């Protein structure tokens, strides 16, 4: 019965259920709550990962025992804190951010979280700055959460710079519901999906806007 209902697109995750689950499985401590709320408080767009997706990301990074990671799209550092906390003790995250105002808030938050030594925030557009971290690879994890039109390029970069068994995770892979539209951005994100599926073992997790997880073959 439940299977039939979920195939028919029924939604069982009420806001109350999600809030209860978040409290039980991935509760924010005071630091995490402050970083989570900081975009609104500092005038940045509140487009950080959802609590549950971020909980999954942190759990996954810990589960796979990742050590060296790259993130494209820092914003105020919420997902960076989640990733960095889960990395091995001697691990490092390189987080790439195009907007200097976002990078500045992120650096402050990472300092307050005691993670300045574990996370390097790199200013600039990722297409330009990704080559600057290549010498730190091969990487265990690449996390994409920035301009969706860039995913095709970032996916190819990840393919070249992840170790075999390394993991690519990308948020918003339903493209806010526009994935099958006829514009160039949607076509590019579809190519990102197709190329990733060719070179990675992939699963698309049905979060509100889709989270793609791929293990490099
Ligand atoms: C959705 S937010 C990232 C949220 C963050 N991962 C989190 O969950 O806390 C996207 C960020 O990507 C940045 N961005 C957009 N295009 C970019 C690019 N080409 N290179 C680097 N950063 C970019 C934006 O300025 C914004 O801060």
Descriptive notes:
By secondary structure, this protein is of the alpha/beta class. The protein has one domain (12-216): Rossmann fold, CATH 3.40.50. Helix content is 46%, strand content 20%. The protein is built from nine helices and seven strands; from the N terminus they run ααααβαβαβαβαβαββ. It has helices spanning 2-7, 15-25, 30-41, 51-63, 78-86, 100-112, 126-133, 151-161, 184-199, and strands at residues 68-72, 92-97, 119-123, 139-144, 162-171, 200-205, 211-216. It has a seven-stranded mixed sheet, with helices on both faces. Helix 5 links the parallel strand 1 and strand 2. The model is unreliable at 1-5 (pLDDT under 50). It binds S-adenosylmethionine (SAM). The site of S-adenosylmethionine has 20 residues, from helix 5 and strand 2.
Q: Estimate the mean pLDDT confidence.
A: 95
Task: State the strand order across the main sheet.
Answer: 3-2-1-4-5-7-6
Q: Which molecules other than protein and nucleic acid are bound?
A: S-adenosylmethionine
**What is the CATH topology?**
Rossmann fold
The H-level CATH homologous superfamily, spelled out, is: Vaccinia Virus protein VP39
Counting DSSP H or I runs of 4 or more residues, the number of helices is: 9
Looking at the overall shape, the CATH architecture is 3-Layer(aba) Sandwich
- Number of separate strands: 7
The chain-level structural class is alpha/beta
Secondary-structure element string:
HHHHEHEHEHEHEHEE
Strand content: 15-25%
Radius of gyration from CA coordinates: 17 Å
Largest sheet: 7 strands, mixed
- Residue runs with pLDDT of under 50 for 5 or more positions: 1-5
CATH class category label: Alpha Beta
What count of domains describes the coordinates? 1
Q: What is the 3D shape?
A: globular
Distance between the termini: 36 Å
Helix-residue proportion: 40-55%
């Amino acid at each position: 019965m439940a299977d039939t209902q979920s195939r028919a697109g029924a939604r069982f995750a009420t806001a109350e259920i999600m809030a209860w689950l978040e409290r039980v499985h991935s509760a924010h401590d005071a630091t995490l709550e402050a970083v989570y709320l900081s975009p609104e408080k500092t005038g940045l767009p509140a487009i950080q990962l959802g609590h549950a997706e971020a909980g999954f990301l942190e759990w996954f990074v810990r589960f796979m025992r990742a050590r060296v990671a790259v993130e494209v799209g820092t914003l105020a550092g919420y997902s960076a804190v989640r990733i960095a906390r889960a990395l091995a003790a001697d691990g490092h995250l390189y987080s790439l951010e195009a907007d200097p105002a976002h990078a500045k808030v992120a650096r402050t938050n990472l300092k307050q979280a005691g993670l300045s030594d574990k996370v390097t925030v790199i200013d600039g557009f990722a297409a330009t700055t990704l080559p600057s971290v290549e010498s730190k690879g091969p990487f265990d994890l690449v996390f994409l959460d920035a301009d969706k039109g860039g995913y095709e390029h970032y996916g190819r970069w990840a393919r070249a710079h992840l170790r075999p068994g390394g993991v690519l995770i990308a948020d918003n892979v339903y493209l806010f519901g526009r994935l099958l539209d006829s514009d160039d951005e949607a076509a590019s994100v579809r190519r990102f999906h197709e190329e990733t599926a060719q070179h990675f073992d992939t699963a698309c997790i049905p979060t509100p806007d889709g989270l793609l997880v791929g293990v490099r073959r």
